[in-house]
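Lecture 7, part B: from sequences to assemblies.

Below are the input chains for today's worked example.
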Amino acid sequence: MSYWLMKSEPDVFSIDDLKKAPRKTTCWDGVRNYQARNFMKSMEIGDQVFFYHSNAEPSCIVGIAEVVRKAYPDHTALDPHDSHFDPKATPEKPIWEMVDVRFIRKFDQPLALEDLRPVAGLAKMELLRRGSRLSVQPVTPAEWKLVLKMAEKGGKK
DNA sequence: GCCAACGTTGGC
DNA sequence: GCCAACGTTGGC
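Predicted structure of the full complex, as structure tokens:
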């Protein structure tokens, strides 16, 4: 089983939206970056995902979701009226894919970037890398454990 | 709102 | 294949 982190702007789709969604599940559409797409293609059912709020105040890891469906074509790339439309995508070669994720839990205390930055064990975390913009990224088992432990302690180190 | 970092596009 | 221009992401 693998660990991941997925970003979403809470104004667009928050972890509360995920919790309120039918079957607490959503398709993760709109990813238009090849590296992020490739990570989604390698996801397996049962993989665990940190739900991250980007462009938030503050930006933070807010909880956990789980992969419940393996990668399949992202139909929004084929829809000219969708903001994620990609004219290069066709039904034969959809280019872009997505997975389905289901809500698992929300942290009592979200973990902000400033809480995570000083943690030695997280120094190499992709999320904390300078200039990192990857919206879907792998998390190592050690990082996963550490972040989870921090969440249990209420966000403080 | 600013702007650094990054990915993509397109002229050559 | 290079690289300048441009658009986007996302922290601050």
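Note for the exam: Helices of chain A lie at 15-20, 34-41, 113-116, 141-152. Keep this in mind when comparing with the next example.
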